Amino acid sequence: MAPAALWRLAEPPAPRGPPGGLQSAGVGSNGFPPSQLRRRRRGRSSAEHSNDTNTEDLSSLENSLSPWEEWFICKEKELRARFQAQAMEAMHKEMEKIKEDEEREKKKIIAAEKHKEWVQRKNEEEKRERERKLSKEMAEKAAKELKKAQSKEKAREVYLEWLKKKNTEEVQKKKDEKVCLIPVCHFKKK
């Protein structure tokens, strides 16, 4: 707002008439003689008159106002404009807030979806890891069982070999004993 207009807001303007508030004869409340006002009104074209009926009513109303009333109306217009600006600003802020809330909700939904996908991938990965571990454990267990079975088989073979050897030795020993039991003299006669 211009500095010159600020002083107008602070206090109502002084009346236009002569000192003491009395109006001189022949001068209207707006400062123009009534004959001049009539001439000004008559000077309009008929097209303007038909198009601007409301404007003329307003201007004639404004022309008949006192300076204090003009000041008061000016203040009211300024207040109305200020309130409208505040209302517009509040509406814009509300719309921005709604927009931000919608964006936040979209981001929440996207984040929830991403988290859900991440949890699903993590669970699948853990499941594969468990299956891999189980498979590895089963393979190790099978390898141990095979090794144990092979070891048992080898021990059995060693035992059978030993038993066979022992039996062979016993048979040999018995043969040797039989040979020893035959008198030596029998051999000499021949």
TrEMBL record:
<feature type="coiled-coil region">
    <location>
        <begin position="85"/>
        <end position="156"/>
    </location>
</feature>
<feature type="region of interest" description="Disordered">
    <location>
        <begin position="1"/>
        <end position="63"/>
    </location>
</feature>
<feature type="compositionally biased region" description="Polar residues">
    <location>
        <begin position="52"/>
        <end position="63"/>
    </location>
</feature>
<protein>
    <submittedName>
        <fullName>Coiled-coil domain containing 34</fullName>
    </submittedName>
</protein>
<keyword id="KW-0175">Coiled coil</keyword>
<dbReference type="InterPro" id="IPR025259">
    <property type="entry name" value="CCDC34/181"/>
</dbReference>
<feature type="domain" description="Coiled-coil">
    <location>
        <begin position="65"/>
        <end position="178"/>
    </location>
</feature>
<dbReference type="Pfam" id="PF13904">
    <property type="entry name" value="CCDC34"/>
</dbReference>
<dbReference type="InterPro" id="IPR045323">
    <property type="entry name" value="CCDC34"/>
</dbReference>
